[in-house]
Input
Amino acid sequence: MPWEDFEAIFRPEGVHMGVMRSDPKKCTRPRGSSCQLCWDNCPFRAWELVDGQEPRLVADHNCFSCSNCMVACPRNAISIVETYHVDSGYFATAPHPLEAKPPMKPLDAGGNASEWTAIEKAVLNRRSVRNFKDKPVPEHLVRRVLEAGRFAPSAGNCQPWKFIVLTDKALMNEINEGVWGGVNMINAMYKDDELVKQLAAGFELAPQTPGTFDPRLAIGGMGSIAKRYGPVLLAAPVVILILEDERGISAGGINIGICGQNMNLVANSLGLGACWIGFVTVAGQIPPLAEKLGIAPPWKLMSSLALGYPKFKQEGMVAREYRPVTWFRDGAPAPVDE
Output
């Protein structure tokens, strides 16, 4: 197929990065504080820090409105000016941009004001933790996290998962370097106007999820790894690799997603922080690493969870994109979008 058929995926137009603002009246940096938690908690290093000034977004920043900087700020100094959105084309968001809304107020069965349940609080406050203390996680806690995954529901009760637990720093560094090499190569090809056509040709021969080249991943995620903003495995004291049996029932990794989210929530309940790391799948495609890790068909490395004690506050309820929900109510003459 000609390049033009892939251009909308590999060279999207109308991409607007999120815009965040730090309130100088609230931020402590203008008054000489060394606080840089917004910068520390931004996986794309979108902020610049100048002595005596509030944090500001760098000129060519990548921001996907994840709100990591907001939840880490101890003074509530950061706000969203504009969320990430794409005007048109393959990756268009609709409408432009999607409105970000905080969680709706909880109501009981009678429609009266209520309180969040413990499970709701866990879900709504949970956020990816990427900054960990240099403190080991006791193995008995890791086993509790693994049990949460083992008891997850799965299609046909096929239980198509297998876990590999890493605490060996030397091995994790080897994985960091292996994944960095693979991602750096793809990133270099993506940025080059001629080499990107080879990526498109490969995409045609072995179709992947088009989202692999969503700007948030192709520009932000791959870019941050290529620039070595931090190790791929986040210097976490524990990393759990999640393998999927390719013969499992269902598709799209939904079983692994359910399993991993169980583990994620239980980790948080134990005072730990967790972060999904999808780029680790590159390690499963590097023969020496796959062999060392014992990964062989029918098992495939699908994702991983970094675990550890949070270095600072990285959780909290934030606004999220809101798409209208379509309701087909009993007896109603037509569906309603709310």
Q: What stands out?
A: The first helix runs from residue 7 to 10.
